Write a sequence for this structure.
């Protein structure tokens, strides 16, 4: 009996030790997963899915490593997806994983607010939800052989214009509103401005799916002038010395939104990344990559020209009004124009 008692006591001791080991092991697993899938904001490692519009890849190729060198970025890795802004927004709404979304224009963010994937308060900060600015520019070939200087030059006989598809690309929407608003700035009526858009698009031989695809189409030799983001024009000139660009007298201020998604597994790390993008260092990197910083102090460090008749989307009624009026695929102004010209409406 004494041997049996000793055995029982030993068994109980072993059972306690096994239980303690299990608790420690489980605690260790919990600590390891604090930055893993399913965590809601613990520190440590995390993989953030960044979903953005097509032309930002070069800037983020510098911004991401810079963030990872900060204390907040330690242990954070990224998966990136870049493409046409509208298509990217629809993809996230349909289930594509995203922790941070960076789009060309506000309606693509509004779609995710409506899908309850982005907070309705995404734009309630000092920058109104924006992370960069730009303007619509005109890219031409060296020497400007077609003598392109103003919007009226784009509709001269024989001029071929490259601009993306407005039903997939945010860049295209900015381009169209820049062209339309420029006509109003010149004193034309809304009807005359719409007539200008129809004439302009009769000079467009192809409509690539994104701003980046449009640049690639132009650099491959298609077209005489490319309507594009100023930052894309700067990139094009840096990469191809045979290109130059003009900021027309009348053009629109491009405002690019960013937000953390509501269902991110890593809110702490995602918010820290967006905060870094708004920091002086992040804004300076954007400035160096051809974007106009939203931080006015940092913007002052760069020599970006201010077009004399610069206007905003709010001057045209705001995106809530403009997006439906111009870009509804059934009844919008551009849908009607594209159908009349035999161009795509999706």
């Amino acid at each position: 009996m004494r041997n049996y008692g000793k055995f029982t006591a030993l068994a109980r001791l072993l059972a306690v030790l096994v239980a303690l080991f299990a608790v420690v092991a489980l605690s260790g697993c919990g600590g390891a997963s604090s930055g893993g899938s399913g965590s809601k904001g613990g520190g440590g490692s995390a993989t953030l899915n960044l979903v953005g519009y097509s032309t930002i890849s070069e800037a983020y190729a510098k911004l991401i490593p810079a963030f990872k060198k900060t204390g907040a970025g330690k242990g954070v890795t990224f998966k990136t997806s870049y493409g046409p802004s509208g298509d990217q927004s629809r993809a996230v709404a349909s289930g594509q994983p995203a922790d941070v979304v960076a789009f060309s224009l506000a309606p693509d963010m509004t779609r995710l607010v409506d899908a309850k994937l982005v907070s309705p308060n995404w734009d309630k900060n000092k920058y109104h939800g924006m992370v960069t600015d730009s303007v619509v520019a005109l890219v031409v070939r060296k020497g400007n052989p077609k003598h392109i200087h103003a919007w009226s030059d784009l509709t001269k006989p024989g001029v071929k214009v490259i601009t993306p598809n407005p039903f997939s690309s945010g860049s295209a929407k900015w381009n169209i509103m820049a062209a339309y608003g420029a006509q109003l700035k010149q004193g034309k009526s809304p009807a005359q401005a719409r007539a200008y858009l129809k004439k302009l698009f009769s000079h467009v031989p192809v409509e690539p799916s994104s701003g980046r695809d449009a640049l690639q189409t132009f650099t491959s030799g298609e077209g005489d002038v490319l309507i594009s983001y100023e930052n894309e024009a700067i990139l094009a000139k840096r990469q191809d010395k045979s290109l130059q660009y003009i900021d027309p007298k009348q053009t629109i201020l491009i405002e690019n939104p960013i937000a953390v998604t509501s269902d991110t597994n890593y809110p702490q790390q995602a918010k820290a990344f967006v905060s870094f993008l708004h920091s002086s260092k992040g804004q300076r990197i954007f400035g160096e990559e051809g974007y106009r910083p939203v931080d006015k102090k940092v913007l002052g460090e760069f020599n970006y020209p201010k077009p004399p008749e610069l206007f905003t989307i709010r001057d045209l009624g705001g995106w809530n009004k403009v997006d439906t009026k111009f870009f509804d695929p059934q009844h919008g102004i551009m849908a009607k124009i594209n159908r009349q010209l035999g161009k795509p409406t999706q």
